[in-house]
Amino acid sequence: MNQPEAGSPATTRRRPDRKSQLARIAADLFCERGYHAVGLGDIATGAGITGPAIYRHFRNKQAVLAAAAHDLAAAIDTAVAGVPATGAPWERLDAMTRALTKLVIERRRSAQLYQWERRYLEPEDHATFTATISSLVRTVADLLGESRPRLPEADRTTLAAASLSAIASLSTHRTPVSDRVAEKGLRGIALGVLATGLPPRLTTERAAGWPEPATVGEFVSRRERLVVSALRPIRERGFHAVTMEELGAAAGIGGSSVYRHFASKADLLAAVYYRAAERLAVATSTAIESATDPGEALRKLVDAYVAYTYQDSDLAAVYLSEYGNLPPDDRRALRKVQREHVEQWVRLVVAVRGDTRATYARLAVHAALNIVHDLSISKHRIADAEQIKHLVFAALAS
């Protein structure tokens, strides 16, 4: 058999793109460990090259993050471009959900880049990546409008964003699931969300920024003031980007006095996590303890969780985004708490549905929780709490 000439299309297709490969490896590591916990040496090791060799492709880690975001954005654009431009709108929506589900399955370790690690992009790169996500939401919303022309424009956007959060949820957990089950389950959930209606929004005003941070009364202890005041800076800039002194200043505590209350910044973060876990446990147990059947318990659980995440979004955002920066012992203890919380949802969904296997119920629960997280924690809230609850039930019922 004749060999293709160097530089021919066949040779080009077989030659690996080292820069793209490094970006993919970096995206996996950033999402698993957090941007600041990953060094260029870690990325080089993952690619099987020496540390200095990475500088042939990137000048620094920030450039790697930008490339990882660009690579994911390009993959999204490719998936969307592959959807037929003609045909019945709902069939095209189905094709869109299929294409995006396959993309998330393929990039399960790195698709979560859209959620937290993009905070660390330079402004121009952040704007470009965000524009890709916004364009994807508009594309799905426009297709939904073709299929459901009487649906209000604002509802199309909300349903589109929620369906995409459901699909992306696979990247937020590590529950073992086959590709076949993941594709079938997530497509069904996404289409179920797109097919639902929404209750009227209680206010027509769209939130254009995060709610004001929690205030601390003058009689609260300094330790408590530190815990509450740390939430907004960590949420906005990330754990590694703020210093203990800055967190102390936010609480009105100067200099080394902060170390009288917490030995390290990681210990302060652990206190935040235990606070969030305790509040969530109390809210959910109080909500369901008087329920007389699984359906009532599930309704009350949804009410409690959405209220917790929507009303205390700073605490919820830090709880969801900074887990990898906890001390190891605290990380293990809190991981167990998180798993038990998810399993409580799964047990109720299985009891209510009756015909649902635990594997599919677990996919639906993670999808529902990710819808709550994305729509509650976003800087631009496009749904109120009652609408989010409706979306949760749509995801759980699909």
From TrEMBL:
Record domain HTH tetR-type: where: 16-76, 220-280
Gene3D superfamilies linked to this entry: Homeodomain-like, Tetracycline Repressor, domain 2
DNA-binding region range list: 39-58, 243-262
Keywords per UniProt: DNA-binding
One Pfam family linked to the record: TetR_C_24
Name the UniProt record assigns to this protein: TetR/AcrR family transcriptional regulator
